[in-house]
Design goal:
11 helices, single chain, 13 strands, 3 domains, 3-stranded antiparallel beta sheet
């Protein structure tokens, strides 16, 4: 079954204000279309017909350029598809879009209160201590201290003049990103799945390029839960599913317990209450209110993650009062964290939390 978004006019119109160039627009529309290149070009033609896209843009020439650069390729049966290079470009563009938001909002600039020898240099400095690496010496600060102490006539360095940059340890971490693909993620025309896919792609690119010692696995949960390959993220779509949060958490726990990192965490992106569990191979569903059996077993899965040393960070895209109570209880039992974010701010919240948690002290 294929699912279409409603109210496309305003959605696509708003997108034009968010992107600086045609390629960024193309990349984001690719996520909205579940990787359907032909559908994206139909949307772009539609935007141009409505006067929302510059009429001087030659979309056919743009298509030829994408093909020449091997971003898309012609299929034997007709139509176009993304290439591996095209998938990588979408990952990079997703990362750039989210980091631009981080810089504008000020996210990601928080530091832990204590520091020490580590892997990443900070802007802060402190007096030199025996054993500090000479590569961390702040030359300008050191000379400035010598001038303050003895004046500019005859500069001489004393032990107390030396300043060194603070550093932080970046610990290796295994992360499981869980994405809700239940029908509510596109309910009433509100697109929540596209920002979730963009975050998944951006987080993948961040880890591959900046934190190669880390592990990222991606899973989805609807009626059931399954792991997906990174290359399949752009093509991810929601379905007529309920929300089996318990299955997602149990799958994530099993995968993370098989990783070599001691630091393990689950990032769960969802917008609804749990409405399903799996019992004896069958899916028990109840979409009406909070079913006590579903609720109890979901919370037990969160507790099991805590006992396994796995922290759950929930990024909730809705804020109904009953839902907030459930997320608060899940967070309390797991001793994790929870954020309530609009879909367009999801990336900023998730990335700020990921980068902040990377900074660990070794005692």
């Amino acid at each position: 079954m294929r699912w279409e978004y409603s109210e496309w006019d305003q959605t696509l119109q708003d997108l034009l204000k968010s992107f600086q160039d045609l390629m960024s627009l193309f990349n984001y529309l690719m996520l909205m279309a579940g990787g359907d290149v032909d559908k994206v070009f139909k949307w772009m033609e539609y935007l141009q017909e409505r006067g929302s896209l510059d009429p001087d843009i030659d979309l056919e020439e743009f298509r030829r350029q994408l093909e020449e650069q091997r971003i898309i390729e012609k299929l034997k049966e007709g139509g176009y598809a993304l290439t591996a290079k095209g998938e990588q470009i979408i990952r990079k563009d997703s990362l750039n879009q989210i980091f631009n938001g981080l810089q504008k909002s000020g996210f990601g600039q928080h530091r832990v209160p204590s520091t020490g020898n580590g892997d990443e240099r900070l802007t802060e400095t402190r007096p030199y201590r025996f054993g500090d690496s000479v590569t961390q010496i702040d030359a300008l600060g050191t000379i400035s201290n010598a001038v303050k102490r003895g004046g500019v006539e005859e500069i001489s360095l004393a032990e107390e003049d030396f300043e060194v940059y603070e550093t932080e340890h970046l610990s290796s971490c295994a992360t499981m990103l869980l994405i809700d693909i239940s029908h509510s993620m596109i309910l009433y025309g509100e697109d929540r799945i596209t920002p979730a896919k963009q975050v998944a792609l951006a987080l993948t690119e961040l880890i591959l390029t900046r934190y190669p010692k880390d592990t990222l696995r991606v899973g989805v949960f609807g009626d059931e839960a399954r792991e997906i390959a990174i290359k399949d993220i752009p093509y991810l779509q929601v379905g007529p599913y309920h929300t089996n949060t318990r299955a997602g958490l149990e799958m994530a726990q099993g995968i993370l317990e098989g990783t070599r990192q001691s630091n393990r965490q689950i990032f769960m992106v969802t917008d609804g209450k749990p409405t399903a569990i799996t019992e004896n191979g069958e899916v028990y569903k109840n979409p009406y209110g909070f079913d006590p059996k579903i609720l109890a077993q979901t919370l037990e899965a969160a507790s099991a993650c805590r006992r396994a040393g796995i922290t759950i960070t929930t990024f909730m895209l809705a804020q109904d009062s009953d839902l907030v109570d459930f997320v608060d209880e899940l967070t309390r039992l797991n001793r994790g964290r929870a954020y309530y974010a609009q879909a367009d701010k999801l990336g900023e919240f998730l990335f700020a939390d990921y980068i902040r948690n990377k900074r660990r002290m070794l005692h």
